[in-house]
Amino acid sequence: MSGLMYWPLLRGRQFDLLALQLLTQENLLTDRIVPIIEPIRDAAVLPRLLKLRNRAGLPTVMIQNPSVGTYGLDNQKRYPLTAALADPQILQGWWWRPELAVPPNQVLLLDDPQLLPPAAIIQQARYLVVPSDPRILHAVQHPRRIFLHDPWPRVLRTQEFGQYADTPLLAEQHWAAAHGFVGISDYSLSGAPYFDKGWAQGTIALHIAYFRDGGVWLHHFLPPAASGPQAVQFQRLQAELRRWLASHRHSILWDAPLRELLHYGDIDHYPGLGVIKKLSVAHQILSVQHTLS
């Protein structure tokens, strides 16, 4: 499994970008983490993040034709990326569409088994991101393939995580390495389905990464039913999290994001759902990095 890299596909949500910014600022990432950013809206944090990563000498993939969100519809950008994208650390990512002239030596992403690119287009790509669809996996070959899968549970409401206790996040790395992939990718803590507005967040949840069976799993924490305001829910989740950590202390990466999350419990402060998600994503990325290294 030597050299296998992690390419999380981040849909450009604020908490995703802030998690990546936090890890980059604190020098916690290596070049084995290559985030693929699919911008969904014109946001101030995006050029700041790219500038930060460029200065750190860390590679980043920026999708040029996003398949979701409104970013691709805005001709006039309030926060342009032109300067950041000119840096050699930035790789262009393109969802394959037959009508596009995709430049060579960039990152090509596939998502439709009925519309596969010609062999010549595939071979001139620098990296090829291939989804777990067997119709695509078996049809395309490339020396630098990235395996994109989506292990995130399919739920429509936060409460539905109650049917799951633990779910795998990184469990395919040995298979991917054995089949010649150079990297593995997923949709982080959001999953592949994209909803621009999401759903009303009455119930909050914690999704904590831990080591299991040679990979990374997620334990899902939900507050008891009718737990009241989110601040009260967070208190109860903190108590449950600490009980669980006490029995899993050797299966956890005790990194800065997890310690910060616990600190909010120590001072009895609810930081808001965005901060919780930011810290959860940061902890998840560091846990995967630790496993692959």
Determine the N-to-C terminus distance: 9 Å
Give the number of helices: 9
- Shape descriptor reads globular
Total number of distinct structural domains: 1
Measured on Cα atoms, how large is the radius of gyration? Answer: 19 Å
Instruction: Enumerate the spans where pLDDT stays under 50 for 5 or more consecutive residues.
Output: none
Question: Could you tell me the strand content as a percent range?
Answer: 15-25%
Summarize the structure.
The protein is an alpha/beta fold and 293 residues long. 31% of the residues lie in helices and 17% in strands.
Protein model, in words:
By secondary structure, the chain is of the alpha/beta class. The protein has one domain (5-292). It contains 9 helices and 12 strands. The strands form 2 sheets. The chain has a 9-stranded parallel sheet with strand order 1-10-8-7-6-5-4-3-2. A 3-stranded antiparallel sheet has the order 9-12-11. The longest helix is centred in the last third of the chain and has 20 residues, at 273-292. The radius of gyration is 19 Å and the shape is globular. The mean pLDDT is 90. This is Sce7725 family protein. InterPro entries: Sce7725-like.
